[in-house]
Specification:
The protein is α/β, with parallel strands linked by helices. The protein has helices at about 20-30, 70-80, 100-105, 110-115, 140-160, 170-175, 225-235, 255-265, 280-285, 305-310, 320-330, 345-355, 355-370, 375-390, 395-400, 405-410; strands at about 5-10, 35-40, 55-65, 85-90, 120-125, 165, 185, 210-215, 245-250, 270-275, 290-295, 315-320, 335-340. The longest helix is centred in the middle third of the chain and has 18 residues, at about 140-160. The two termini are about 15 Å apart.
């Protein structure tokens, strides 16, 4: 398999998972056995220039977020690409935050598989694992019921693609137990390549900066985090004050959220709204900070931002709930944990990190070490081998195995 297509949001882009798509494409491009990668990407209306990833990578922007025709454009692009296999990098809202375009887009992998294009899916979340009361559907019980009902059909259809991998064991459990899936596997999120170890500064050499990054406004909100920083700063001298740097953008369902907060707090010089963090700025964004904060009302999948903080030696503060429990207990990442939805507990976590740098540094080093365990090159190797098995027709042997996870490991050649 020399030519593959990767369907993903791709930088420059405001689409979720665009950073993961970037690192996934780079991991495939680094392989000597891959000659061409066609990235079937989302359209971007900003002014940023297209990234130059070398002659192996051909980015074709063919679909738009919230377009009901995204799938048709993707299938047309796949047909013209002459790729030998297609890999989709997805989450439930990859194609839209409205139910119809979101669902229609997620049917595309099964359609491309039926059209004789070996197709696999990296799925970063499942509706069953999301608390819909904490999303943009919070005030619409009817829409919640419709989404829950439709999700079974959509997921069942997605499993008609060649294979599906998920990034957390809890998602794999859902696919095995609820959907009786025989072609679903847990493949860890993978760590993004980082700067060399000597470029990852020790916490004692960093300023009193904490950072947070994401798409804000729904289950990722900033009121508690800003309140925590302001409360702590109220009792600190000017030289000891903490600066909060907020990176990212509005969630598509909450346009204007960040602008509203920026206006509200424009007089506070210690609250900085950085905006979108370009790929080339990610390292500096994290290595400036002593702590990365993840104050979520709920979780919807393994956090790519948490893994980014880990590889840059920035300890994290996050609530022990949902998918954060998975990454702690099953992946081995560690952080300053606090009670969910509790600003006072978050304040204590921030204070502990800043006052006990020896312990904070031990957490940072643990996460750097954990991140080295499963790299994006390993993830790309597994995905490629699965695509090859689909293309060769050998995958049925894996489907029939009693322990498919063991069977996959036996068949993998990295």
């Amino acid at each position: 398999m020399k030519t593959i297509a990767i369907v993903t949001a791709f930088p420059p882009s405001a689409g979720s998972l665009n950073e993961y798509g970037f690192h996934l494409v780079n991991a495939f491009a680094a392989r000597n056995d891959i000659e061409k990668i066609i990235v079937i990407a989302d359209r971007y209306d900003g002014n940023a220039t297209e990234l130059d990833l070398g002659p192996k990578v051909d980015v074709r922007r063919v679909w738009r977020f919230n377009s009901p025709f995204a799938g048709l454009h993707i299938l047309k692009a796949l047909k013209s690409s002459k790729a030998e296999g297609a890999l989709y990098n997805l989450q439930t809202a990859s194609f839209g935050d409205s139910e119809i375009p979101a669902a229609l887009g997620l049917l595309t992998p099964a359609l491309s598989q039926k059209l004789s294009m070996p197709s696999g899916v990296i799925m970063h979340n499942l509706v069953e694992a999301v608390d819909l009361d904490k999303t943009n559907l919070a005030n619409s019980p009817l829409r919640q019921k419709l989404v829950s009902a439709a999700s079974y059909f959509v997921t069942k259809t997605m499993l008609m693609s060649g294979f599906m991998t998920v990034t957390l064991d809890s998602f794999w459990d859902i696919l095995k137990e609820k959907y009786k899936a025989k072609n679903a596997f847990m493949v860890p999120h993978g760590s993004f390549p980082s700067a060399s170890e000597q470029d990852v500064s020790q916490l004692e050499d960093r300023s009193r900066i904490v950072v947070t990054m994401g798409k804000f406004g729904t289950y990722k909100r900033l009121e508690r985090t800003i309140g925590a920083i302001q409360n702590l700063n109220a009792s600190l001298g000017e030289e000891q004050k903490i600066k909060l740097v907020i990176g990212g953008s509005d969630h598509p369902a909450m346009p204007g959220y960040l602008d509203g907060l920026a206006t509200e707090h424009k007089a506070d010089k210690n609250i900085v709204f950085h905006g979108y963090v370009a790929e080339e700025d990610v390292a500096n964004f994290f290595t400036q900070a002593k702590l990365a904060i993840f104050d979520y009302d709920s979780t919807t999948g393994s956090s790519g931002v948490l893994h980014q903080a880990a590889i840059y030696g920035t300890p994290a503060a996050y609530p022990m709930m949902g998918d954060f429990i998975d990454v702690t207990e099953r992946e081995g990442l560690k952080g300053f944990n606090f009670k969910p939805l509790d600003q006072a507990a978050l304040e204590m976590a921030i204070k502990q990190c800043l006052e006990d740098e020896v312990f904070a540094q031990s957490l940072a080093q643990n996460n750097i070490d954990v991140s080295k365990g499963v790299t994006m090159s390993t993830v790309a190797s597994i995905q490629l081998q699965l695509l090859k098995q689909i293309k060769s027709g050998k995958f049925n042997k894996v489907r029939r195995a009693k322990n498919s996870a063991v069977m996959i490991k036996q068949n993998m050649v990295y």
